[in-house]
């Protein structure tokens, strides 16, 4: 017996049992049953976020999904590394340009005290 047959037999028994009940209890049971049927029909629609297969899963075979996930994570990590490296090189380039544009003679850059002053200034 599959799911549909079981559901059909259960519905027949529930329908027969509700005929024996009368009054307010029968109305409450009928409204609860109708609400459950509406909820199950909404959940069965494909492409919904809840209660259905998402459409993007249908595009890839199950074998390729882990590979695509690994590729996406790797691409994100590499893009982040590239961005950090580029921003670091860019900031060093700005410092080099400022030093080259300055009016100090070349001997001042070779002085040990100047290197110490630069390191102390960059740390603060």
From TrEMBL:
<dbReference type="InterPro" id="IPR022064">
    <property type="entry name" value="DUF3619"/>
</dbReference>
<protein>
    <submittedName>
        <fullName>DUF3619 family protein</fullName>
    </submittedName>
</protein>
<dbReference type="Pfam" id="PF12279">
    <property type="entry name" value="DUF3619"/>
</dbReference>
<keyword id="KW-0472">Membrane</keyword>
<keyword id="KW-0812">Transmembrane</keyword>
<keyword id="KW-1133">Transmembrane helix</keyword>
<feature type="transmembrane region" description="Helical">
    <location>
        <begin position="63"/>
        <end position="84"/>
    </location>
</feature>
């Amino acid at each position: 017996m599959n799911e549909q047959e079981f559901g059909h037999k259960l519905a027949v028994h529930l329908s027969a049992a509700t005929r024996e009940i009368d009054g307010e209890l029968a109305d409450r049971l009928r409204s609860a049953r109708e609400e459950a049927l509406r909820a199950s029909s909404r959940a069965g629609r494909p492409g919904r976020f809840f209660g259905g297969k998402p459409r993007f899963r249908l595009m890839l075979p199950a074998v390729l999904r882990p590979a695509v996930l690994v590729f996406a994570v790797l691409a994100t990590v590499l893009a982040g590394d590239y961005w950090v490296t580029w921003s670091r090189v860019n900031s060093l380039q700005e410092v080099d340009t400022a030093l080259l544009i300055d009016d100090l003679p070349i001997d001042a850059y070779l002085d040990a005290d100047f290197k110490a002053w630069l390191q102390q200034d960059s740390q603060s």
